[in-house]
Amino acid sequence: MPMGKSFALALMCVVCLPALHGQTKSPSTAATEPGILKEYDQAIDQVAERAMQSVVEIEVTGYGVPEKDKDQGDQQQALERQRSLGSGVIVDPDGYIMTNNHVVAGALRIRVIIAPATVELGNGNTKLGNRQRVYEAKLIGTTRYADLALIKIEEKGLPFIPLPQLFYFRLGQTVVAIGAPEGLDHTVTKGIISAVGRQPEVDRPMVYVQTDAPINPGNSGGPLIDRNGNLVGINTFIVTSGGGSEGLGFAIPEPIVRFVYHELKEHGIVPQVTIGAHAQSITPALAAGLKLPQDWGVILSDIDSGSPAAAAGLKAKDVVTAMDGLRVDALPKYTAFLYVHKRDTPITMEVLRDGQPVTVSVTPVNLPPVVENLSDLINPKRDLIVPLGIFVIDLKHSSVGATLNLRSDHGVLVAGLLGGEPATAADLAAGDVIRAVNGQPLDDSQQLRQILAALKPGDAVVLEVERQSVLQYVAFEME
Fold this sequence. Notes:
Elements: H1 3-21, H2 27-31, H3 35-52, E1 55-64, E2 78-92, E3 96-99, H4 101-104, E4 107-114, E5 118-122, E6 125-128, E7 133-136, E8 138-143, E9 148-152, E10 174-179, E11 187-198, E12 208-211, E13 223-226, E14 231-238, E15 249-253, H5 254-267, E16 273-274, E17 277-281, H6 284-290, E18 298-303, H7 308-312, E19 319-323, E20 326-327, H8 331-340, E21 347-353, E22 356-362, E23 365-366, H9 380-383, E24 384-385, E25 390-394, H10 400-403, E26 412-418, E27 433-437, E28 440-441, H11 445-453, E29 460-467, E30 470-477
Parallel strand pairs: 2-26
Antiparallel strand pairs: 1-2, 1-4, 2-3, 3-9, 4-7, 5-6, 8-9, 10-11, 10-13, 11-12, 12-15, 13-14, 14-15, 16-23, 17-18, 18-19, 19-20, 19-21, 21-22, 24-25, 25-26, 26-27, 27-28, 27-29, 29-30
């Protein structure tokens, strides 16, 4: 049966059943419902209705890696023109909106839709939450590491969900997720907090709030809120074997969202920091073998030579007990605290060394940029070279070359390929550096565009390319 007919039939059945069976509730029946359940329902109703006014749908047009190619790792990936949908939450009445980085990555155009929402349906009474408005949005900044992004629309006096310094949430409490799964804006689902401080990858300081509230594609960037309407986190990913919600949803906690929001609003980036100490969880077996004073918490397993930790006097086997007066009892807390610590300010660390308390002051330093995927560095509006079907990054005045240990300090780095057939069949790959064109040293992408524009169909072109640290030539004819 076609989807439209199936939906209509189901809706008709729902509407008609009470009348067929004579089960229409009267006001007196409603009054006899258990009071506590009615109050709970009303509280959730009010929270959802108020919060959804601050939730937006985000439409993005841009370039991205096709879904079928996302698991290729370091293999060649071509970027294709895409349209995607996600959600966002207004966190400032002046139009600042937090969402996920993966929602807006590779965007050419970002549109924010504040859609009307039907919050009540009854005999002779249909209540809409707000009127529809569509805005062009500006990207303020992103961080791939935390998978968060800040965008802005030109509007004032918007309803918003604040990001307070004080926060509180705990295991088992009721939470509500709001978003636009599969483009169905203002979809509200309810569940509980299944875990607090979940750290799926031990080498990354990202911790998440786990929830069983149903979350599906399109919920990304939307809020997870508690029964008081406070932000618990930003919904970001699910673990699923079938592609839909299986009750394993993860949200970026409010403290991280708040920290990233302020960093992006002020600087446009969130630099990663380190103290040069390697930490791991203490297990009972580890504690017994090393004769540690406790069988839980965090131990420093190694200290990098010349690092801030070494300069501060931290040593391997130190057990971390507190950072800036806050108790550290688990690795997720240690790594998350380090991530959200205010940049360029020292941390007071309390450790146990051979059972004796030691206090040190250590100032984190910025890590050099880590390039996990060259396509993440692309600005589609600026970096596309149409005749060659490539996206490039200028090496001049860029730290990318040093990060990738390139021989070349000039020219352009091929960061991605445009999906489909380019205007010219040049044998180029992501990671190549174009150093010269027909023997002429290449300075930047603007010069490359000018050279290509001056060539005619049939003209021979020879590119000097650095590929995997070896210089070679790529020859072709303009078409």
